[in-house]
Write a structure and sequence with these properties.
Layout: E1 5-8, H1 14-22, E2 26-29, H2 35-42, E3 47-50, E4 67-70, H3 80-86, E5 89-91, H4 98-113, H5 116-126, H6 128-133, E6 145-149, H7 153-166, E7 169-173, E8 185-186, H8 189-195, E9 198-201, H9 215-220, E10 226-229, H10 238-246, E11 252-255, E12 275-277, H11 286-304, H12 318-327
Parallel strand pairs: 1-2, 1-3, 3-4, 4-5, 6-7, 6-9, 7-8, 9-10, 10-11, 11-12
């Protein structure tokens, strides 16, 4: 039997690549994330490790595909329903980058509180004294209120750092309020947006969370408050946020994700001095990249061997997956129910 081919929508950590090669796989890295490139790269692949948006018809046009494994927690880059219907396992890596995202949020809150970005700009342009004067308006995180929408792995780690490290008051919103840690007080969204000095969006994108940060909720925020989004761009009503920032109805926003990515050159957010923009990197660090690559690679090999992966998003696919695997002529060894 030929060596299995694993497509990578972009490069992963060398440790992950080493795991795949040691497992007998041939690797194929897409040179760019364009739909036509990804379709060509995956056309005869047995598995794909996903770091870019897959075209909606990629599963249909990849007849040998057994696995689409997300190099991260959110599976919105994968056409999950189509994969399930055709017997393709969808793997993911939940929680591994939670600390990286939480630390990113803390860094941005500190930078916003101390006016770091503005101070740097003024120091370069106007000199020491004018830059130093900006510190008169700086604030501390201690005693402030943090509101976290989505208290999962990321939100819990963030709340832990904020409460124990900075003595912040933490409000949290999640569907199952009984799973909130003891140092997080439950708050409905109206209250959370009204009372928080920093509102952090760390929830998955679902039909219920799409547009969650609406014009109505943004209007409840204090003029000194900041919105930070490390979930998905569509969780925020972007035009409403642009309007609130332009009118200075809130102090600012830190945005790591956007409704359309990459962010267009002429997007109005780019022109707003109180919008701090990063290119979807909150969860990326040397440590998280290694961990995500290791787990994604190991689970890819498990699927190719006919074994259940450690993290299977579409669990009900399993019987169809085993049928697809047999139909493609894979050996039965290692197949499990």
């Amino acid at each position: 039997m030929r060596r299995p081919t694993v497509a990578l929508t972009s490069a992963i950590h060398p440790v992950g690549e080493q795991i795949l090669r040691a497992g007998g796989c041939e690797l194929r890295v897409a040179p760019d994330p364009k739909p036509e490139t990804l379709l060509a790269t995956c056309a005869d692949a047995d598995a794909v490790i996903v770091r870019a948006l897959l075209p909606p018809d990629l599963i249909d046009r990849s007849p040998r595909l057994l696995a689409a494994v997300r190099h991260g927690a959110g599976v919105d880059l994968i056409p999950v329903d189509r994969a399930t219907a055709l017997g393709v396992c969808v793997g993911f890596v939940p929680g591994v980058n939670g600390n990286a995202v939480a630390e990113f949020v803390v860094a941005q809150m500190l930078a916003a509180a101390r006016n770091v970005q503005r101070m740097d700009q003024v120091l370069h342009a106007d000199g020491w004294s004018r830059a130093r004067a900006i510190s008169d308006g700086a604030s501390e995180l201690g005693g402030k209120t943090l509101g976290v929408v989505g208290v999962g792995a990321i939100g819990t780690r963030l709340a832990e750092i904020a409460h124990h490290g900075f003595r912040m008051r933490v409000l949290g919103f999640r569907r199952d309020r009984t799973k909130l840690p003891p140092f997080v007080a439950h708050a409905e969204l109206d209250r959370l947006f009204t009372e928080a000095d920093y509102v952090v969006l760390a929830c998955p994108l679902t039909p219920d969370t799409r547009g969650l940060a609406s014009a109505a909720l943004l209007a409840r925020m204090r003029p000194t408050a900041w919105l930070l989004n490390v979930s998905r761009g569509a969780v925020v009503d972007e035009p409403a946020l642009v309007e609130a920032l332009a009118a200075r109805r809130i102090a600012g926003a830190v945005l790591d994700v956007f409704a359309a990515q990459p962010l267009a050159e002429g997007h109005p957010l780019r022109a707003l001095p109180n919008a701090i923009l990063t290119p979807h990197t909150a969860g990326l660090s040397a440590e998280s990249m290694r961990a995500m690559s290791e787990i994604a690679a190991a689970d890819t090999l498990r699927i190719l061997r006919g074994e259940r992966p450690q993290h299977l998003f579409n669990a009900d696919v399993w019987p169809r997956f085993l049928e697809r695997r047999r139909a493609l002529g894979w050996p039965a060894e290692g197949a499990t129910k």
